[in-house]
Fold this sequence. Notes:
The structure holds two protein chains of two kinds.
Chain A: H1 3-14, H2 20-32, H3 34-49, E1 55-57, H4 59-74, H5 80-83, H6 89-105, H7 107-115, H8 118-122, H9 128-139, E2 151-158, E3 163-169, E4 173-179, H10 183-195, H11 199-208, H12 216-228, H13 232-241, H14 250-262, H15 266-279, H16 285-294, H17 298-319
Chain B: H1 7-14, H2 18-40, H3 43-60, H4 70-91, H5 93-100, E1 119-121, H6 130-148, H7 152-163, H8 168-174, H9 179-197
Amino acid sequence: xxxxxxxxxxxxxxxxxxxxxxxxxxxxxxxxxxxxxxxxxxxxxxxxxxxxxxxxxxxxxxxxxxxxxxxxxxxxxxxxxxxxxxxxxxxxxxxxxxxxxxxxxxxxxxxxxxxxxxxxxxxxxxxxxxxxxxxxxxxxxxxxxxxxxxxxxxxxxxxxxxxxxxxxxxxxxxxxxxxxxxxxxxxxxxxxxxxxxxxxxxxxxxxxxxxxxxxxxxxxxxxxxxxxxxxxxxxxxxxxxxxxxxxxxxxxxxxxxxxxxxxxxxxxxxxxxxxxxxxxxxxxxxxxxxxxxxxxxxxxxxxxxxxxxxxxxxxxxxxx
Amino acid sequence: xxxxxxxxxxxxxxxxxxxxxxxxxxxxxxxxxxxxxxxxxxxxxxxxxxxxxxxxxxxxxxxxxxxxxxxxxxxxxxxxxxxxxxxxxxxxxxxxxxxxxxxxxxxxxxxxxxxxxxxxxxxxxxxxxxxxxxxxxxxxxxxxxxxxxxxxxxxxxxxxxxxxxxxxxxxxxxxxxxxxxxxxxxxxxxxxxxxxxxxxxxxxxxxxxxxxxxxxxxx
Lengths: 320, 219
């Protein structure tokens, strides 16, 4: 390879855009040519300077965008067009028109969004629970449809009868009672898991949903609890509730593996390990082996070594 | 977290699952917003692009067949919207300067990303050493100016390859051009960046590099 060819390929080498043969040729040239090696070093230095995006969206801007989108999809009063009406009337009208067109084009999906409390998740930073509860009110045949600000105030689950009582405030406190399979109750529970500032309520709601992880919305809320809930007890219970799904659902398994690797609470890590052990997925073996070497907690290291041995033993047994 | 496939979520969303659509948006919306902010230098325009991108995705999801990844598909929508914005801006004299970027004389920090309260320079964090912080801010300002001075197409290819990690082949698809043209844009972007930043040393750079850092690749 000539120096001219090498110079053309150095950037592609750094971006991993060369096929193996080209890469081999460039690397051989670089090993023997000081000039091209210096150019490689210079490009590396430049890329290191540029490693981080120079502009990173602020978190509050991202959250505002998500809320705007949720409103737009639901055709709410704060749809993007209305938000910008003061600044650029022409554009606002166009946006509103586009929005109406989009909602006309997919009425089934719009209904699905309303029916599944899509707004609840996206408005979590603001008054999501209030909006969610209004939607839930509509789902209950119109009762509380005009209610104002609301919040779930109490939750009682009876494991023997598998029934749940959810009390929530509208203009007056209301209650729903029935199975967590009831869509309206399930939505309230999901919104509680996701949005309630009260850790006790979140724990109870996770408990009540533990046999409903087959539902995608429930599963998404539980996965998010594993990833984001600030309360270790809630994270642990969410892992429990997802136990049966870890074997077959890659999203769940990924969340549990992430908890095993990153959760700051050793108890949560151990529970994640138990769930993954039961899933008997050979792909987690390297994770167990790594933790057996590196986890800062003695007990977690010991249990990881046991889990790795058990998984290896099971794999050998299947081979026989 | 280990990589997981969007496919299952797309299937669910195509069957009407709001939770699956929400999860897909959450997976990719930061990239869309970053791209729009980087190219348009305007919070308001970036918010418009974000909205329109996901409204279009929502309308068209039923037609998505997976010929590309969802991420590429969404970034294609966002890219086209950004280009539309830039075309419109260049036809409006009062905004043409902004659309050209911050590389020109008089383009102080107030016009660049650091001047916008909704954006921040990615490395603009407090540090223990004020001198180093100042030097770091200056380095980031120069990098922002150099990127802002690139022609739109080169800037776009660079952003998509360098920060969003798309392959040149995918970028060629997005821009409805060839991989070779995308590659040449990347070469030109690097040539210009090298010229603008050749003397710059990054005083704030630590030992760890970003996840998309190609400086870690290669030999």
